[in-house]
Amino acid sequence: MTTAANTPATTTTTSRTREPAQTQTQTQIQAQAQGQAQAQAPAPAPAPAPAPTERRRPTLGWRLRFGFLALIWGFSFLLIKVGTEGYAPFQVTFGRLLFGTAVLAAAMTVKRERLPRGTRTWGHLAVAAFLLNALPFSLFAYAELTIPSTLAGICNATSPLWGMALSLVALSEDRPTRVRVAGLGLGFLGVLTVLGAWQGFSGLDGAGTAMALLASLSYPVGWIYVRRTLAGSGHSNLSLTGAQLLLATAQLAVVTPLFTSLPTSFPVVPLLAVVALGALGTGVAMLVQYGIVAEVGPTTAQMVTYFIPVIATAAGVAILGESLTWSTPVGAAIVLAGAALTQVKPRTRRGR
Question: What count of Cα atoms within 13 Å lies in the side-chain half-sphere of residue 92?
Answer without folding.
Answer: 37
